[in-house]
Amino acid sequence: MPFDPMLPLPEDDHCLVREAIAANVDQTLSMIPEVVEDVLARHLPLRSAVVLETCRSLGGTIQNLHTVAAVLEYLNVAALLHRNLEIAENSRRQQHEVQQLWGSEASVLLGDYLLSISFQTLTRLGNLDILDAVALLTKDIARGQILEISGDLWSVTPQQWEPMIRQKRAGLFATGAKCGAIWAGADARQQATLYDYGLNLGVAVQAGEDCRNTSALETLCAALSEGRPLLPICLLLHEHGSPATREQWRSQLDSLSEAEKPIWLLERISAEKMTERTEAWMQARQDAACAALDQIPGWSSETLRKFATLNPLKSST
Q1: Residue 35: what pLDDT?
Q2: Mean pLDDT of 35-64
Q3: 1 domain residue, yes or no
Q4: Contact status, residue 157 vs residue 234, Cβ threshold 8 Å
Q5: Which residue, 30, 101, 123, 201, is the most exposed by fewest CB within 10 angstroms?
Q6: What is the number of structural domains in the chain?
Q7: Would you state the pLDDT for residue 313?
Q8: pLDDT higher at 86 or 297
Q9: Does residue 7 register a pLDDT over 60?
Q10: Rounded distance, CA 208 to CA 197, Å?
Q11: What is the pLDDT of residue 33?
Q12: Does a structural domain hold residue 272?
């Protein structure tokens, strides 16, 4: 079935998460209302649904858990603010979306503000296990960003892409599932299993986004301008065809101007049917998410399983 990004989150939960996003920040400060609008605009209901439904499926109560879902949205935007900085001139990154709104110095401060609000909010919540899980997530996001800006964009292989994504966007899903399990009183084994479920689901969602970003010239140009490795391109340049063919493609790519590269890539992705290959790769991660659910004896969550069988190609960021 097509993936409706609003489908997994009931209206009441959706409103409570968004209220929590707005409630925990001081909107009297300059630029903070705009940041809150950005957090709300980037709110992914599926990410919040994983937090809440994991808790529900284990028999827990979700009172105050919407706050944890809101914190994950803060961390998502904080990572974008920090990622989108203009760094050294010899870097592969250029001016980016968030920086264009606020400038690089303001982006650092606003990202740091969201991080500080996240930990202040969780401290008030009073659950040290959730605080520890989110602290680990922030470290992993930073590691993923370091990996992302290191090296040449075209040298990233699928084997390098996945750990990068697991430590960044997929980590938000994984930590959300773990926090839901912690809030429900699950044991360490269940927490680890549900973390694995969220990790595989998050990777599949990112693969779906990468597919959409390589389906049209405008979205491809935007993604490449941000220096983001995209899975269909990683598969094309490092796993598709013979080694000689891949070397020829990389040479051709290097010889093109920056304006010509997206056009060439779009043609190659279409001609080599890389969307289909990425879909198969994505399905394997969705299957792994379902397999993780099967590891908890005597327990089954049809809702969480449903999340892992939706079509991420239709989801939103």
Answers
A1: 80
A2: 89
A3: no
A4: yes
A5: 30
A6: 1
A7: 60
A8: 297
A9: no
A10: 17
A11: 81
A12: yes
Looking at per-residue confidence, does 94 or 180 come out higher?
Answer: 180
In a domain, 185, yes or no: yes
Place 91 in a pLDDT band, splitting at 50, 70 and 90.
Answer: very low
Q: For residue 317, give both structure tokens.
A: 């960021």
Query: Which token pair is 5?
Result: 């990004």
Q: Which domain holds residue 275?
A: 11-314
Check: CB of residue 304 under 8 Å from CB of residue 197.
Answer: yes
CB 176 within 8 A of CB 196: no
Residue 83 confidence (pLDDT): 67
CATH number at residue 186: 1.10.600.10
**pTM for the full predicted model:** 0.88
| Torsional class of 272: left (φ above 0), alpha (ψ -120 to 50), beta (otherwise) | alpha
Give the burial class of 128: count Cβ atoms within 10 A of its Cβ; 0-12 exposed, 13-18 middle, 19 or more buried. Answer: exposed
Determine, yes or no, domain membership for 6: no
Residue with the bigger pLDDT between 235 and 311: it is 235
Q: What percent of the chain has pLDDT over 90?
A: 61
| Mean pLDDT of all residues in 177-203 | 97
